[in-house]
Amino acid sequence: MTTMLNVKDLRAYYGQVQALHGLSFALNEGSLTTLLGANGAGKTTTLRAICNMVRSTGAIEFEGKPLSGKSTENVVRLGIAHVPQGRGTFTTMTVEENLQLGAITRTDKKNIVADIERMYEHFPVLKERHTQQAGTLSGGEQQMLAVARALMLRPRLMLLDEPSFGLAPLIVRELFKILGKINREDKVTILVVEQNAQLALELADQAYVIETGRIVMSGSAKDIANNEDVRKSYLGY
Amino acid sequence: MELFTNQVLAGIATGAIYACMALAVVMIYQAIDHLNFAQGEMAMFSTFMSWQMMQWGVPYWGAFILTLALSFAGGIIIERLLFKPLAKAPVLTNVAGFIALYAIVNSVAGLIWDFTIKQYPTPFGSSPFLGSQLISTHQAGMIGITLLMLILLFVFFRFTRVGLAMRAAASLPESARLVGINTSWMIALGWGMAAAIGSVAGMMIAPVVFLEPNMMLGVLIYGFAAAVLGGLTSPFGAVMGGFLVGIFENLVGTYIPGVGNELKLPIALALIITVLVVKPAGLFGRPIVKRV
Question: Which among A129, A190, B41, B169 could bridge B183 via Cys, Cβ 3.0 to 4.6 Å?
């Protein structure tokens, strides 16, 4: 298996405050990896650092190419889609315009139209509402839209920041099922940051646990799920 | 009744100019959250450039198109040189920047072309429009050009990729970057377009107010009134606001005794204050629907 994303000694800062203290991890191509951790552990910051949305040092390589010094939009153009915390929906635009925006860097017009149809198959509720202002969708629908928008990039790597946040358990299950399908069928490598550790570990094949800006544990999702400390701290039994 | 129709039509004609200025102001406001106080001066400078070209023998429509292109480029250059570095600066720094730009453009225009009033040609003539005494051909032309420009802009923002990207960048910059949009250049593009729209307003109003470095001051204040009335968050509202302010201005000037040309400007200012107190979002600046 080849390494798709390689993060080495990542340190990130908000002004004077250091949020990541030398984080290192790697993602294999085609894998579905989860990054677990409590509030404030640095999960979101890690994703933001990959997309250069926060000041950071260290080395991040994507498919062998260094990402440092690249602007956020240029990182995205390499095929890294980021579904941010809070979903980043363009609330004043229609559902369909949101999907078109996901593909704004692409020029293959025909495929874009086909991809929008494909998204409607993945997420039928979006089709029903495609002319509706995206801000009027429910939280779950907006999360579906955010994932669909990210997929419109035809990404090689997808970063998801707490996709389960604020959603009903049933919706979360549905969403995770779709994520698994996308990972298997579309061969999109996925890194998902979650507080819902149980679900994330069921879905993922690799897992990292992060505490106060450092990786404290890594391994296969199964091993991590069976680890005593993880069970006590994150799974609650 | 004829006086009324006449005043309304004349109001629509000048309203078209206010609509252009309001639209230019709103475009920049949407992109960077600041009011461009120098919008009028930029338009004035553009108008002088077109006048200069005509002095050199360029035909009217050639000068018109060239001026549009030069203004577009000029808007982009101003943004890159002056306002991009100020992007993260406090509000007051930006306000100072706009006032500086206002003063510089105004003085440079005076330096090059001096402050005497100049005649500015109209390509439409000033005979009665279609034989009717209600409106002149120049006024009809002003309305026509504005409507044409508005339709083009609508099509651009609604149906093109760049238009969609510009709207996205203005509404949510961070999300826009996350789909791969270079938001910084979208802002520059917005400046270019605003400058070009302003130049059309300048070239259309110049035959009416005559060409001189301070010609756009009153027009810009009416443009601000229009933008505030329609809602600073709504380009459509800004345009409607422009037409409404134009009509309002003329009717008040005609029917309320004591309000001559001298008192027309305070009316625009009173309108701004009234709207900000009564309905700060403006007529069309609808609140964003949001569900969490």
Answer: B169
